[in-house]
Amino acid sequence: MENQLKVCSMFMILISTLSFVAMESAECKAKRELDTQCGKYCYKIVKPLLEHASSVFQKEKALAEIQLKANECTQTIADLQKTVAFKVELLNSKDKHLASQALLIEAKDKQLALQTELINTYKAKKDSIENEKDKKILTLESLIKEKDLKISDLEVKNTANSAKINDLQTKLAKYLKMLEQSSCKSITSIIKLPHVEPFPVSYDYKIAGPGWTVIQRRIGGTEDFNRNWEEYKTGFGDLQYDYFMGLEKIHLLTQSQPHELYIQLEDFNNEIRNARYTHFLIGSEEESYKLIKLGNFSGNSGDAFTKHLNMKFSTKDRDNDLVTNNCAIVHESGWWFHNCSHW
Ligand SMILES: [Ca+2]
After folding, report:
1. Which residue ranges make up each domain of the chain?
2. How many angstroms does the Cα of residue 263 sit away from the middle of ligand 1?
3. What pTM does this model have?
């Protein structure tokens, strides 16, 4: 400010000097006019007064100009002060803004630190999970290899078994062919059951496949089935042809383990029908060899046997049916008769 005032003062002086030069030329003119008017008399008295008045006038004028310049400088100073104040305020505002930004940056730094920590935690978890996964994959791969080995082993065994089965099937086919070519219609064997002497039985393989024991066969009409109780109890006939196993043996056999029943009927036109029951069990002699269980029926002959369920066995000398007549006599055969219409 001080420098600015000095410049202003110098400027004012310079203006004043220039004005004085201009004024002086006008003054010289006035002097000359006064000198002419006053002549040599008034010159000595008036001239100094005039010069003094002129000097005062000039100084007042210069003073007024200086005052004006001073006012202008004062205004400039005031303006500059305002500008400075404004700048200071602006700086303060900027400082506040900077402080606010610093706080914001600090908060952001904290947030960033938290996020970094979270990311590190997540990474650690991810690594842990991946390690666990890798371990599981390795375990599973090991299991798969083990299974593959087992499968391979089973495949080898299966191939060996298939070869054995094929061999057995070939042998069975050969055996069946031999049987087919022979005159035998069935195979006989000895069966052993608890509480009874071993006894021969006939196995049929043609009617319903292997494994069926024949308890009755009536095909040739050579055997008389009109027998008494004792004969039906012990059995009769030829194992290879017409035959009845005997009620006591059938009782022991069906009691020893669950049995199915298969009945095949062939009429005089060679039409064959069959009936199959999922269970077959008869009671003891004390129960008159009652038909205790029969199971579910299947086949194409119609279910003619279920109605005999719970019936006792009847022979010509033992009437256990439910009608007045003895159906065993009527039909000349023993059976689990219900009435004489059905058997
Ligand atoms: Ca009767």
Report:
1. 1-136, 185-330
2. 25
3. 0.49
